[in-house]
Input
Amino acid sequence: MLTVRAHANAQTSPLPSWNDGPAKQAIVSFVNKVTDKSGPNYVEPERKAARARWAKATPEQRAKAAAQMSRAYWDSLSAEERSAEMKRRAKKRRKK
Output
């Protein structure tokens, strides 16, 4: 009887081996958000594949991609936003 109950629970509960808690709730919530096609946070399968490729990337490839994304982010900022970002970073460095 116990085996049947555990098996039934494994089929209905996401992450059945995890204890209920904030980490499990956060993961389940995230997965629900990104897999809901009608929601604003839906992630297309092509983007999921890109994340899988990212996981297989070498450290050098990741560093290059991170630098490119950082540069693209910086280029997208207005002059006022860049100034505010530089001030925020300087303040953060002073706290260390």
